[in-house]
Amino acid sequence: PLCPLASAEGLTITQLGPYVLLEPTEGGRTYRAVNRHTEAELTCKVYPAKSYPEVMAPYAALPSHPNIARVAEVIVGDQNVYVFFEPGKDNMHDLVRRRKRVPESEAVALFRQMAEAVVHCHQHGVVLRDIKLRKFVFADRERSKLLLENLEDAQLLMGSKDSLVDKHGCPAYVGPEILSCKGPYSGKAADIWSLGVALYTLLVGCYPFQGTKPISLFSKICRGRFTVPDDLSPKAQCLIRCLLRRDPSERLTASGILLHPWLASNPVPKALGVSPLGGQGLEQVVPEMGSCRKNLEKLREVDT
User: Shortest CA distance to 214 belongs to which of 134, 285, 283?
Assistant: First the structure.
């Protein structure tokens, strides 16, 4: 049972079995948690109990993988389910904000781990639907090992087809087919587009498509036109263009990404230094999908 406690700092602390839940983040659904017996720190995500089967289905389908955070424990309450994960350090989004641009010599090792996590998911029938840099966290202080923080928003496919119909994802990372198509779309191909946005942002320091208003952002994504800096290597430019193909059928598969020449030689990951926040590359505000439905409808009207 939950047991609210008072702290000397005035924070609300909740005891849940062997765990103490500390300050919440992300709208109160994610907490820092500490095991009272081992003093191990974990991340706790809270879900409504009625969504328990849907939330846990992707985890049950996936064998363990070194680049996907493991579920440490699940506690089922009357109203909520508490899922505990091994914690990560800072995330890739924050890294790019600090560094502005990550050199290819470092980015190649990091992106390979991101791609390997996606390959593992796709091979076992899991579509992630909401890939973004913020979801990949560092597992070590040296910032060399990445973890996909969780499978929140992921969907377990039924059978071999990956057709989806729901409009889901972070606006800056969403594929053009999701914005403009009224019918089903390939969930795996949509994941690849999002990986392409992540790679571009990692190497360039800003999103490939930007707009001050949702309708402007979505229009640019649907047109699929972007520029790649000339100072990127030809192989990096090639991979970006292979992922950000407007036609989903022309994009590389997740497994195909690992065979691309840019990733053919994977150097030993280097430690990534910490520097103060100062980059402006990711300061652009992008709206949440839930607040953009009217703009999506307007965009479809324009396209038709």
Answer: 285
